[in-house]
């Protein structure tokens, strides 16, 4: 009987230790952090005491779980002392792949993702000491489009934005809420999200990726940038353009590949982010 009591006490103690002070369940690595509206995954550097983070939005049909399991992608940020937050999108319709609430003429997506991402950041700050004012928001493909969307609708959400292989969709907004610091990365031979945009064939409605160059023109207008880039660099299959703007900042990196991230991409993004003097 006494042994049974001790076993029950031990079980209760372990359950208590598995819960942080605010009562939310522990999470990290392959265990999702669950909040109202969805879930996200989190990876922290060894010896983490709080600090900057990269929030990375997955591509169409993927998930936060797949992002956090991508050791190559995550390690590039962890080594530099950044937490990685990987939220999961929702199916845009029952039985369909996971997506994000990008404005594209469809009205079936079930969640306000801007509000959801705000909740993710607040939860990560409470759980792990992520600094909201030291956030780099990034994402790939459709996730990159969502990065453009957040930057446009809520420029104050992140300290800076580093989308890859994704931009606005039609009908494209003509007015954002303010200047941002944005680094856009794109493959020169990308056929999935071409620089010049494309119509998605076979869709129930006309779904069109906007011209990336037209989107960059909008960012130049929002940031008060001149038409011509002030700085150019080309080496090892990487082409860079940097504009000197009145507010925010704008840089473009093109690589010789297709719908992919270039080798060393995380270092490029973090070098740029840290050069901003946040």
Automatic annotation (TrEMBL):
Coiled-coil ranges from the UniProt annotation: none
InterPro entries named in the record: AB_hydrolase_fold (IPR029058), FaeB/C/D (IPR043595)
Domain of life the protein comes from: Bacteria
Entry keyword set: Carbohydrate metabolism, Hydrolase, Polysaccharide degradation, Secreted, Signal, Xylan degradation
Subcellular localization, as worded in the UniProt entry: Secreted
Signal peptide positions on this chain: 1-20
Protein name: Polyhydroxybutyrate depolymerase
